[in-house]
C-alpha cells in the first residue's frame, strides 16, 4: 500500500493543492516558508491518523477546508477519502464509514532533530483489522511513537512501560548478544551505518562500548572513524542525526517483526520514510551521497522490501546525487514556488539532468540567474549590459562605466573565472604583447 494522491483545499499556504505521488521516491523543494514541512506533517496524518507536531489548521475566512487522499495496494485503490475540519470540536475528522489498515511501519525524520514512528502492529489493544475511524485513541496507544533527541538516545517510557530502550541501551545490548547472525539487529545496524557513511574513505563502523563518566554507569556505544574512535554522545550534530536514523530504521523494523510474531501475523514487506531537509547539518560530501545510500540501506532490513520515500531539500547536491537513480515511472520531483501575484503554487517538475551544482542552481528548481555572490552577479549583469551598448542608468552608481565595472570584477572574480575572456576581449582590455623589433 502506498499513498497515491493528496488533495488539500483551504489548508496551509496553498488554497488548492493536488499531488500525485510516485511509488518510490518523491522530492519536494522550494524556498523557505512555502509549505514543505507542512506537507510532510499532512502526509504523516493521512497515513496514521495522528499528528507528529501541531495540527494543520484551515485558512481563516475560507469555507469547507478539506484534506483528501487516495491509497493504493495490491488489492486496488481506496479513496479519495475526504476529511473535513470540525470547527466546533477544533479537530480534523475522518468519515465514520471509512475503514483503513496501514500495516507497514512509517518513519518521519523531522528537521528539529526529532523522529516519529508509526507501527499499527504495536498498538497496545488489539483493534480489529481493518481499523475503523474515528476511534477513541485515548483508549489505547495509537501506534505512534514521538522521539525527542533525548529520548531517542536514552529511552521512551509511558505509564511505567518501556516503549523504546533508546539508542544507547539497545546498541550495546544488541552488540553484547551472543548470537551475531547476519540478520541480528547489531549486524544489520552495522551494515546500515556503513552504507550511510559519507564516503568509502570516510567510513563509520561501530566500535567497542566504553565508559565515559564516573557519574554514568552505562557503557556508551562508540564509532570507529578513519581518524580514531569516539563515543557516539560526542559525535557531531550531523553524525548524530545519521546515527539516530540508522538506529531507528533497525529498531522500527526489529520491533515490527517482534510484534507481528506475538500477534501471529505476517510482518509487512513495506516501509514509508518521510525526511525533512535531507541535507541538515551535513557536509557537501555527505549531501551528495546520503539519499542514494538511504535507498540502498533500507534493503539491509529485508532483502525484498518496497519503500516509498518522501523528502524535502534545499540542496542542489542532493538533487544531483539522484541523477543516476531517478526513474520517471517510480519517482517524482515537486517545486513549491511563490508567483508574482504572491500566491504559493506546487508543481511537478519534469525530471531533467542538470549535471553539476551550477546547472542545478540555475535551473527552474532553484531559479538563480548565476551561481555566484549577489555582488558578483550584479557586476556581471552591468558588464553584459555595457557590452550590449545599453544605457547604464538602471545599474548601481559604482557600476556604470567600463573602469568601474572592471575594478569591481577584479575585486570579486577569481583569475580563472570563465567570464574573464569575454569581458577582456569585447572591451579591448586584453593585455597586448609588445612588438619585438627585428635585429
Question: Would you mind describing this structure in some detail?
Answer:
- The chain has helices at 36-48, 149-154, 167-176, 185-195, 237-262, 284-287, 290-297, 316-321, 357-361, 374-387, 402-412, 419-426, and strands spanning 2-11, 14-20, 25-30, 66-73, 76-86, 91-93, 99-100, 106-109, 115-118, 131-132, 144-147, 156-158, 161-164, 205-206, 222-225, 228-231, 270-275, 306-312, 332-338, 344-348.
- It has 439 residues and is of the alpha+beta class.
- The N and C termini lie far apart (87 Å).
- The protein folds into 2 domains: 2-361, P-loop containing nucleotide triphosphate hydrolases (Rossmann fold), CATH 3.40.50; 374-426, no CATH class.
- Residues 125-140 have low confidence and may be disordered.
- Helix 4 (185-195) runs antiparallel to helix 5 (237-262) and helix 4 (185-195) packs antiparallel against helix 7.
The strands making up the biggest β-sheet line up spatially as 11-9-8-17-18-3-19-20
What is the CATH domain class of the largest domain?
A: Alpha Beta
Q: Which fold name fills CATH's third level, the topology of the largest domain?
A: Rossmann fold
- Main pleated-sheet profile: 8 strands, mixed
Gyration radius, rounded: 27 Å
Number of helix segments?
A: 12
**CATH architecture descriptor name of the largest domain:** 3-Layer(aba) Sandwich
- Terminal CA distance reads 87 Å
